[in-house]
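Inverse folding, one chain.
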């Protein structure tokens, strides 16, 4: 077959990476569909006026990205798997632990032995005295009444999220909450705006639900108000999905003035807001969510996962008054109701102060790791929050992000590039995201930083030089 990748080719970067990214964008736009056979290497090389070697490297890179599948004797085909565009660092997360690389790639809180002990103790308490409804209930769909009441009080008093228990929905983690909010608002083909770099889960969700995701320019505080205003005028979006606090992957966090400006733009256009506030507890108290400024047009999502223990997938979705009856059918269709026993643990931790204690400990642990990272990578440009889960590291001119990622993995270190977080086409920033929590052992974490510091001070191996 013949395909025209020219409209999708970014103007910068090595040619083989440009072709791989063009394939990704053509797939995302629906121009290349699952099961399509790609042209032979020489045919595409002739069409793009590049070498056969460049096309071979592009196809190999596309296969690493999960976009295509090479079949011996049959050619290269667009992947038919639902997770064909899943980030490489997520696909490699199931490697055996023995000999596994130091993991600075996955968003994960620090989970020391004391956290495990507290979780086990609470499990024993729940085994002895769980609320009867947590064992045998299958309604109300939005969650058990006592769990929603406790959560509503906590959301209002600690995070500043307006609403009553009747406005809260318990869900299986923040990703589930975002999906429920989007499914409540958006129809197939609708436009949703988000940051130009955004959580890879939202990108995957846009493909699953068939919505058109459009990126808006960001700076060190997240979405730029003027850019958001222009995008609203251009696209007339059904909703805007934003992460104002510790944005993933950059760590950008809006101050009060920026939040006021964003809220004014959304209010003027009457556009629904979905606020992903998953990292709220990783910041010291004091930040007021965007939802508090737009209570009648905002869906607020948060969870306990990033501040307590990863296994406590307790998510909380707050919906505007009058929208609950639209959300509950989506909840019923996806999981009937959130797992009551998980929320029995969350309810006890909210009641006895464990959530606040664990969140404070998490902030201290991350602050220690932020300081260690800055010490080990001194002299390099990076963006982060003092208690942030991530570091957004700029690379020296000699390195390309994908090449550093590959070389680091060869040397026993897993990191994430900007590619999985890109919305739309264009050259991704030459940065990598370092996630600071997955390695509970501080010595092993430091070992990973040492590997990275050494690589950053060296030139790429010859085999990684640009074509």
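Residues assigned per position:
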């Amino acid at each position: 077959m013949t395909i025209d990748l020219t409209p999708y080719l970014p103007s910068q970067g090595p040619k083989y990476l440009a072709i791989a990214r063009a394939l990704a964008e053509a797939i995302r736009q629906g121009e290349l569909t699952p099961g399509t056979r790609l042209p032979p290497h020489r045919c595409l090389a002739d069409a793009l006026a590049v070498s056969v070697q460049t096309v071979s490297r592009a196809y190999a890179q596309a296969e690493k990205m999960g976009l295509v599948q090479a079949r011996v004797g049959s050619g290269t085909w667009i992947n038919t798997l639902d997770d064909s565009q899943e980030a490489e660092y997520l696909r490699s997360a199931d490697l055996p632990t023995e000999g596994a690389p130091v993991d600075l790639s996955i968003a994960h809180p620090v989970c020391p032995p004391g956290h495990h002990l507290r979780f086990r103790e609470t499990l024993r308490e729940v085994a002895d005295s769980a609320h009867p409804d947590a064992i045998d209930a299958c309604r109300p769909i939005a969650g058990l009444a006592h769990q929603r009441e406790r959560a509503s009080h906590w959301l209002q008093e600690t995070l500043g999220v307006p609403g009553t228990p009747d406005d809260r929905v318990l869900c299986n983690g923040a990703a589930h909450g975002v999906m429920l909010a989007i499914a409540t608002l958006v129809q197939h083909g609708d436009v949703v705006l988000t940051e130009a770099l955004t959580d890879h889960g939202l990108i995957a969700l846009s493909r699953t639900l068939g919505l058109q995701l459009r990126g808006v320019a960001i700076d060190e505080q997240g979405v730029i108000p003027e850019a958001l205003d222009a995008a609203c005028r251009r696209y007339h979006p059904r909703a805007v999905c934003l992460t104002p606090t510790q944005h993933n992957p950059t760590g950008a966090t809006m101050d009060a003035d920026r939040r006021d400006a964003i809220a004014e733009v959304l209010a003027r256009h009457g556009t629904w807001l979905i606020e992903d506030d998953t990292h709220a507890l990783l910041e010291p108290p004091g930040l007021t969510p965007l939802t508090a400024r737009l209570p009648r047009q905002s869906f607020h999502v948060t969870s306990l996962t990033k501040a307590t223990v990863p296994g406590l997938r307790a998510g909380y979705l707050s919906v505007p008054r009058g929208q609950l009856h639209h959300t509950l059918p989506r909840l019923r269709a996806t999981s009937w109701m959130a797992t009551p026993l998980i929320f029995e643990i969350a309810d006890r931790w909210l009641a006895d102060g464990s959530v606040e204690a664990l969140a404070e400990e998490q902030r201290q642990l991350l602050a220690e790791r932020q300081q260690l990272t800055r010490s080990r990578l001194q002299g390099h440009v990076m963006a982060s929050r003092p208690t942030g889960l991530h570091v957004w590291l700029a690379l020296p001119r000699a390195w390309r992000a994908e090449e550093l990622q590959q070389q680091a993995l060869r040397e026993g270190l897993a990191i994430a590039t900007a590619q999985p977080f890109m919305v739309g086409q264009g050259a991704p920033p030459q940065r990598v995201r370092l996630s600071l929590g997955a390695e509970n052992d501080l010595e092993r974490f430091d070992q990973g930083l040492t590997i990275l510091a050494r690589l950053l001070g060296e030139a790429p191996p010859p085999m990684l030089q640009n074509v």
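The two ends are 25 Å apart (CA to CA). Residues 81-111+355-455 form a domain with the Aspartate Aminotransferase, domain 1 fold (CATH 3.90.1150.10).
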